[in-house]
Amino acid sequence: MTTAHTAMLSKDGARASWRADLILALLATLGFLAVNAWAGFPALTNAGGDNDDLLRLVEVRDLLAGQGWFDLHQYRMGLDGGFVMHWSRLVDAPIAAIVLAVSSLTGNTTLAEDIAQVAWPALLFGLTMVFIIRAARSFAGDGAVLPAVIVGAAALYFIGIFAPGALDHHNVQLMLTVASLSFLLEAPVHRPAALLAGLCAALTLAVGMETAPYVASIGVGVAALFAFDATGERGIARDFGLGFAGVSALVFVATIPVSAWSQAQCDAFSTAQFVVAALTGTGLAAIASIEAARRSRGRRLLSLGVLALVLGAVLFLLFPQCLASPYAELDPRLKTLWLDHIEEAQSLFQLAAHDPAELAARYATPLVAIVLMAQRFVRGGWRRQDSLVAVLLVVAFVVSAWQVRGSTFSIAFAVIPLSAWIAKWRRRAETSPSRSSVLRMAAAWLISMNSIWSGAAQAASAALATGARITSNAGVDPSCQARGSFATLGRLPDTTVLAVSNLGSPILIYSGHRVFAGPYHRNVAGNLLALDAFLGSDAQAGSIARDHHVGLVALCRGNPESQLLAFTAPGGFLAGLMRGNVPEWLEPIADTTGASLELYRVRPNG
């Protein structure tokens, strides 16, 4: 058999495996959609308190209404003039394209938005499934494909960031990060894969800085593999570096206006991230391409060490502000009354203290996967695939210990070694069938499912719980998360609404009003003004309402933020309003008395 014939068979096999994996991912996506359709797509009418999903749709509406591509102001939130959001247009654009296409065909913008809220997360779910399946195949062979489909689909459904209505950028970031890993696993046998891995790594960083630890881990992994195996990894390191630097440059030009090219932003893609990405990518590609730099392991390590020192010096000298904690300069009141109460920003230890059931659901499968990787290392036979998967899995677990939001990545990465584990016991059960092998295979399946851990933990918590069980009326929206709770507000003439930050995005999406507060760290002035009003006296709140042209005050008694602020300042304006003490400068709007969202009009002479 000739070399050309062998290569042709290899290409045919690769195409066949891609077709099979695409079909499996499509089936998983259709199943995912069927489950959500059976539930009635509840997120389309109730976002469950996810302000980010709602504000993303507000941004898309603003973009389609003519707001500039480079203009990221949210004009209807904060003080007069609004504030600049730190999100990327790279996520707004495809969602806006879906809305524009469907509305052009149907003439119904509301329908178009609903379709976009279903189609966009489903598309990302399908793509993520493709790359999880490909990664599992590269990691453990064909036997890991079926477990990857089942365990992967269950994991992505569990973490919730692909549910209908999920327009936030975390699902995009997870898809791109898993894609980068998958392409790197395939890079030794598919030459373009390394370039694509660099492309995906650059894009996920451009979408948001939350993925910086994972992008850095991928880059360090590629560099380390090249340092210790130049023969097999030289082309991979070169192409990854070129892809990473090249796409970073394209993103910089496409999303940053020329007037802001000299401005460094630590929480969004800007000149700081571009300079670091360009130096990293071109530096790695240069070292891999220059014979003198790559000739021996010592020279490779020395060259990479110099590159690391240069990057460190650039960060320290040019962008020292980005080395500090991302919330180091946040006002102490906002940290205490807002940041410390964001669920996804809780640490592992905080979660263990108040929600041990969620702790088991979020951390069990990644921990099992880490143990499996440790066993691989101890038993020997460590491979490049193991290094790439292990470094991302461990880093994601460490990030999740700091903030629970990192568990969405660690759970997804854990699917790869868990699928390999299940595949191993499936083979043993097939080749040497026995009660022991079958039971171990069944145990591997069960242990790999987050829903099993979640159900077991919730059952244990229920069994240990004491006291009366509190039930809620299914027809009531105590936290004011459903679209219907804002119907009356939406019919009132547009004005400025004084409300807690949890209600900021819902008010923008369900009405034409503007607000001061919203749960975003750049909206410091607007959030502080709302706190001053709610925590201060009736007179202070009235003065703020008069000076800032407030037309309405919105009260949601059951919202956790309202309860927190009332507890913090029991003598303040909000606490009094929740007790029924309405100051003279306000008048209740009769239609909302006793509703989930109560509205008060500021008297003209107030």
TrEMBL record:
Keywords: Membrane, Transmembrane, Transmembrane helix. It comes from the Bacteria. The chain crosses the membrane at residues 115-133, 145-167, 195-228, 240-262, 268-289, 301-319, 360-378, 385-402. Signal peptide: none annotated. This is GtrA family protein. The lineage of its organism: Bacteria, Pseudomonadati, Pseudomonadota, Alphaproteobacteria, Hyphomicrobiales.
